[in-house]
Specification:
The protein is built from five helices and eleven strands; from the N terminus they run βααβββαββαβαββββ. The protein is α+β, with helices and mostly antiparallel strands. The protein folds into two domains: about 60 residues, Orthogonal Bundle (Arc Repressor Mutant, subunit A); about 80 residues, ADP-ribosylation fold (Alpha-Beta Barrel). A three-stranded antiparallel β-sheet has the order 1-3-2. Strands 4-7-11 form a three-stranded antiparallel β-sheet. Strands 6-9-8 form a three-stranded antiparallel β-sheet, with no helix packed on it. The relative contact order is 0.17.
Length: about 170
């Protein structure tokens, strides 16, 4: 649902929601054993809390991380003074030059603590944690959003707001 929903024959609404019934039909074409209870388990137990149901469980969406255009209807909020970004050491030269860019995603993802950022960085190689001066960036005019699963989002982070990496 975050990337290429059309490959499952799904069309997300403007806020990223899709009908649970439509998702089940699409998933069952690949695995007939998939049930609503399976979806409930994924939503409830996913370590990153990536997915959420609507209040009536008729709709489901990813909480953040889309590479397709959606409006999650998040309100801009004041971030903490410092946030963290987990990446791999092989990306450091590019980040020092260009900062953090959203790439194919809608936002740059930031973590509230270095431990979470380390886990994110580990997925990409030898992890490194960057400290982002989020409060200073916000005061300079950047907007920040907090997704339902606790991931901080912003459009980009210029190099001057990034402190040296902790490897």
């Amino acid at each position: 649902m975050r990337h290429k929903p059309e490959e499952l024959g799904l069309e997300l609404d403007a806020q990223g929601w899709v009908s649970v019934a439509d998702l089940l039909v699409a998933l069952q074409t690949r695995n007939p054993e998939v049930t609503l209870d399976h979806l409930r388990e994924v939503v409830a137990t996913n370590e990153k809390k990536r997915f959420a149901f609507s209040a009536d469980e008729q709709l489901i969406r990813a909480n953040q991380g889309h590479s397709v255009a959606v409006d999650l209807a998040l309100e801009a909020v004041v971030p903490p003074e410092v946030l963290y970004h987990g990446t791999a050491t092989r990306f450091l030269a590019s980040i020092r030059e260009s900062g953090l860019q959203r790439g194919s995603r809608q936002h740059v993802h930031l973590s509230a603590d270095p431990e979470t950022a380390t886990a994110v960085g580990r997925r990409h190689g030898r992890p490194v944690v960057l400290t982002v001066q989020a409060g200073k960036l916000h005061r300079a005019g950047a907007s920040f959003y907090l997704s339902e699963n606790g991931v901080w989002l912003t459009l980009s982070v210029s190099p001057e707001y990034i402190d040296e990496a902790r490897v």
